[in-house]
Amino acid sequence: MLEVRNLSVAYGGLRALTDLSLSVAEGQFVTVLGPNGAGKSTLFKTICGIVAPVQGSVSFLGQDLLAISASARAHLGIAHVPEGRQVFKTLTVRENLEMGAYTKAGRAQWLHTLERIHTLFPILAERASQLAGTLSGGEQQMLAIGRGLASAPKLLMLDEPSMGLAPAVADTIFERISQIHREDRVTILLVEQRVAEALELSDHGYVLETGHMVLDGTHQTLLADDRVRRSYLGLTDA
After folding, report:
1. Residues near 103 by Cβ (< 8 Å), separated by ≥ 6?
2. 206: closest CA among 219, 193, 224, 187?
């Protein structure tokens, strides 16, 4: 579904990503791990067209994304739930969801999708007329995910969905993401720092450090890797 090959991105002459390759098959749940500043958000921004690479290729369902404008990429079936939620705070919950449904597929499936969003996140139905800026952090994250789903995506990209949330709320968010993947058959590409939980959900994972992809494998392979266990899980061999 998504193929990133030999991708390099630079800001002001400094490399944020170097010769990075990544693949996401249809129906997969793929996680990208790495410390702050590793280039994870830059990868997402490049896929979405916010940032232009200096070399490499990005394709989605066989189409060259680099030849397609950023505004048109959502219509292909790519939804990006950004780091920090970034809901439209002065719009209501319902208006935020409507903003997400601007794609052709989103408009065509709006009533069905809205019902599904309300099933996943009942609080969004209860708060439909409430301004998004008055929601709690967890509720805003639910709204951001709902807004992404409103576009009826084939690929849902989630950037640090647990950031700043209480553990119990983050657990709920992870449960819903797993439910979306399992029941709605949406392909997931996740960036997350709660490594153990993210890998448990994943079919495949990648580890990104200082702009380089340094490891990849199944979730079992990565959870067993000494480097991952020491650096990301805080575990040491007995």
Report:
1. 74, 75, 151, 152
2. 219
Which among 134, 104, 132, 100 has a CA at the least distance from the CA of 114?
100
User: The pTM is what?
Assistant: 0.93
Provide the 8-state DSSP code for 164: T
Predicted confidence (pLDDT) per residue in 134-180, tens digit: 999 999 999 999 999 999 999 999 999 999 999 999 999 999 999 99
The CA-based dihedral angle spanning residues 75, 184, 117, 77, taken in that order and rounded to the nearest 10 degrees? -10
- Contact criterion met (CB below 8 Å) for 26 and 187: yes
Using CB atoms within 10 Å of the CB of residue 83, give its burial: 0 to 12 exposed, 13 to 18 middle, 19+ buried. Answer: middle
Q: Taking each helix axis from N to C terminus, what angle separates 93-100 and 137-149, rounded to the nearest 10 degrees? A: 30
Beta strands, E only, 42-150 = 55-60, 63-64, 78-81
Under 8 Å between Cβ of 198 and 33: yes
Q: Can you give the pLDDT at residue 238?
A: 41
Question: Per residue in 115-132, pLDDT tens?
Answer: 999 999 999 999 999 999
Average pLDDT value over all residues in the chain: 93
